[in-house]
Each structure stands twice: as structure tokens, then as C-alpha cells.
Amino acid sequence: MAETALMAANRFRLRHQAKRGSRRAAATLWLLERTDKLLSLVLIANTLINATAIALVTAIVIHTFGYDEWLIVASTACMTFLLVVFAEISPKMIGATYPEQIALPTATILRPLMSAAKPLLWFINLFTGVVLRLFRIPMGAPLRDTRMSPEELRSLVLEGGNFIPQKHKSILLNLFDLEAISVEDVMTPRAQIEALDLSDPVDEIKRQLTTCYHNKLPVYEGEINRIAGILHVRKAMALLTQDEELTTEHFRALLTEPYFIPQDTGVFAQLQYFQENKERLGIIVDEYGEVQGLVTLDDIIEEMIGEFTTSTPGAARADSFGWTELGECLLEGTTALRDINKRLGLNFPLDGPKTLNGMLLEYLQEIPEAAISVKTAGCVIEVVQVQNQSIKVVKLIRPRD
């Protein structure tokens, strides 16, 4: 019972109890760190007791009934049956069912016994070591690797049940998902970036500043690939209260250096870079230096804990789409596939295009000129509107079970 309970005990729970001051948990961990000596002690004692029990029964039968071969065989068989049921199977099943409850008290008994039996264990392990070396197994090797992979941790969180609040579980699962995505998956695409063009008239720049939805805006000259810097809107608004006539040079003087990010940078790595460089906004560029999008610290945080900003139109609509009673859903072509998979329970591939428009164009190999329907990943997608060489609106029809 002790052997099975110790091997089945949850080591993470034992470490937690030991850190909280449990001496029995500390003793159990001490034993589990010495599995070779622990198993030797338990198995030696178990074997001696079983062998002694059978020898005693045999001796009692011979002393009582004489040397009767059939009685000796019958008594040995009966004793073996009792040992298997009451000294092997039943105790081990109990130990496997209640590992911590049994391992903790028995550890306080086994630890001093192990110290007392050191000479015997040393002698037995001499021969055991020879056998293990034949199979190239080092003495004292752990029975199993207690480290857990990200996939095992994810499964542990999913199986947490009522022990982990749903919101906490969602955050933990999002953290595991971040391992497999890059900033390209969470960025604001180039076509949706709100930016200032210094080549525009000053009045147009003023109008855009007074109606913008962000605290910081990228600023470019003529073409968005020519990023001049990042403008803090609050500082720019202070200029608008002055009486002097404004020029583009006034705004240029307020610009800070842009922070560029390669498009294949991992999200976790970028979170660390934001912290190290004291930045909150970065411009994502491809291998040719062309702007692909924009990512902020808020974008990464929202991937971990869910959306919390509602200051922009896009954020206000982010959670608004879902299946209707007819099993349909209207979406813009720029909707991210990751968001669709999360909110609609679909399984669109994420290793290629990042948006619904990109996936459909890759699938069709052309820009559709009329309404067309395709079926992919078990979902029917109907193109509703095409505009400016891209698919503007689509309708999703929920796959039937």
C-alpha cells in the first residue's frame, strides 16, 4: 500500500504542502528523491514478510498433520491466495485510490526505517546496480520525468473543472496559445491603421486630430511606407489652442522615433521587447521594409485576458458578431480568422492568410466578380459584396452537426 501510494502521489501537491510547512510532505518528497533506496526497503520488507508467512503456515501444517504433500500444497495455495488478495491487490488498490492520505503518514515511518536499514540496503543495491548496468540504467534514476510540457499543462488547466474559475482558465489557455503566434496575428492591418499624412493640408491634419480615436498616431509623408515618426495626440492638441498659424513643421517637431518590428516576431518576445524598450506601439514591417500593420501593448494584453477597450469603433464591434437563429453570420472580409474561430467555434486554418478576405482569395485564386459560395473547414461561406479589389462582406452558414 505504501509503495503504490508513494509512486502515485502528486508531487506538485506535495511540494505545495511542503512549502507551507508540512513535515510529512517534506518527508515524502525526501523519500521520492531516493527511489532506489525506497523501493529496496519496501520490497525487501514485503518479500521477507510474504516468505515468512508461507514458511510459517507450511511449518504449522507439517507439525499438526505430518508430512502430507497434498496438505502442504493446499496450505501453500491458500496462503498464496490470501497474500495476493489481502497483501497485494487490495492494499495497492487502496494506495492508488488515496495516494496522499496514505503516503504522508507512511513516509514518517519509512524514513527512519530507511536510515536504520542503510547497511542492508547498501548490500542489496550492490547486486542491483550490476543488473541495472547491464541494461544501461543509472542507479537512482527517477521513475518518471515530473516536468510537464506546455501541452500537458494545457490539458491540466482544461481538466481543472470547478477548481479554476472560468475567467482564470480562459486567461491561462490564452497564454498557452500565445506560444504559437506572432505579432502578425494580433496586429492592426495596414489598411486599418489610423495615421497622419504630413503632405495633407494643415486644416485636414487638424480635423483628423480632433476626430481621432487613439492617443498616438503614426505619421508619414505621402506614402505610408515612409514613416516619419509617432505623434502623441495630447501634445498635438496643445498646438491647436495657440493663436499662431500652424504648419507641418510644428507637428514634425513633436514626432518621436518610430519603433519597427519584424512581422515574424513572437508575441511573447515582443511583450518583453516592449518592456525593455519602454515602448507601447510598434510598426510591423516585412523583409522588404514595407509596413504591414501596427501592434500595441494593449493588443497583446487583450490576447491574454480578453478585450477590454471600447474607445474605437473596431473595439465596440469586436464582440458583436455571432450566429443568428438561422445559423448565419454576416462578417466583414477584414475580420481576423483567429477571432472567427474563437467566437464562432470554427476551425479555419491559421497557418496562411490571417483574414477572411485573404483566405477566400487564396482559395479562389482570383477576385470574384459576382456572388459565389465556397465550402471550407466544414463551413459554407457566401461572398456578399466585393469592393476595391477585395471581398468586403461575407455570410457564414453554420455547419450542421
TrEMBL record:
GO MF annotation: an example: flavin adenine dinucleotide binding
Residue intervals of the CNNM transmembrane domain: 1-177
Signal peptide (UniProt feature, chain positions): none
Membrane topology designation: Multi-pass membrane protein
GO cellular component annotations of the record: plasma membrane
Keywords: CBS domain, Cell membrane, Membrane, Repeat, Transmembrane, Transmembrane helix
Name listed for the protein in its UniProt record: Mg2+ and Co2+ transporter CorB, contains DUF21, CBS pair, and CorC-HlyC domains
Protein source organism: Pseudoduganella namucuonensis
